[in-house]
Amino acid sequence: MTSLKDLADSDFARLIVHVPADPLQKKTILVTGATGFFGAWLLSLFDWLNRTRHADIRVLAVSRDPRAFLERHPSFADELWLAWITGDVRDFSFPAHPVDYIIHAATDTSTEASKNPALLLDTIILGTRHVLACAKHCGAGRVLLVSSGAVYGAQSPNVTHIAEDTLTAPSPLAPANAYAEGKRVMEMLGAIYAQETGASVVMARCFAFVGAGLPLDGHFAIGNFIRDALKRDTVTVRGGGTAERSYLYAADLVIWLIRLLVLGQSGRAYNVGSDQTVTIAELARRVTETLSPNKPIVVEGKDDPKGGRNRYIPSIANARADCGVEVWTNLEDAIALTATYEA
What we know:
Blueprint: H1 4-14, E1 28-32, H2 37-52, E2 58-63, H3 66-72, E3 82-86, E4 101-104, H4 111-114, H5 117-138, E5 142-148, H6 178-197, E6 200-206, E7 209-210, H7 221-231, E8 235-237, E9 244-245, E10 248-249, H8 250-263, E11 269-272, E12 278-279, H9 280-291, E13 297-299, H10 317-323, H11 331-342
Parallel strand pairs: 1-2, 1-4, 2-3, 4-5, 5-6, 6-11, 7-10, 8-13
Antiparallel strand pairs: 9-12
Helix pairs in contact: 1-2, 2-8, 5-6, 7-9, 9-11
């Protein structure tokens, strides 16, 4: 099994020309959600920049349980550039020293979290308020709020790639939309904060991803397919397989986030994800062909023909134009790299 550090080092070396190292030189960056999927990759990027580009970046990482993270990733222990702030995103202690940048990436997207929508909504909103108060206290000049493509609600079947100026929204009457509604409020709080303080606040509306650390036993179809291809007799598609998704690789993702942080326009939201569409059935086939070519694929269900096209695909034209990003890692390579870590 390849460690996250080794895998990330190889990825970032491959993508080195896309990493904006100079704006990060000698900066202090506070990261919430530092021990999650996004956070682990962000810390890996900062570690690589400090070791290979002598960036002298200092990171303040907010986490409820740093010890558990360090047990999983011992290579981050005793790093002088990394300091931990132990606490909940809603009430962690503010650092005593100035901070240059903040990346607010703390949100629980697990199935378990969705079972308590009131708590999930409170955590997103109160956490964002607290992070923005921290930004003001510490003098952070730029803040990146990690939002979600869920803010658009269901993508219209007539829209192939949803753009940031789309004015659709999730229903506020469905408790299942607590996550999406929380992210909408997060963005509003960020816009108000930017207007009131003059600080730069950029919103990253994130879609779907794949990479080391993505749960293989949760509600992520690509993770479940990788698990099946590696460990089970068949690769199982739970529905009919006609839903459409796209996947951005984790190393690409965190470079995107850094480029949005330093290059994005304040008060603007950017979609973050791949614009290369794949149906769920095709995804199962591509995972299987990449990892276990002779394994059978079983499609268990049927999609509701009256339900319309289930699609979750971003337009990334704005991020391309403003921040110079692209889908640098193709889907087959992303699948293979994820499996190398998980195998």
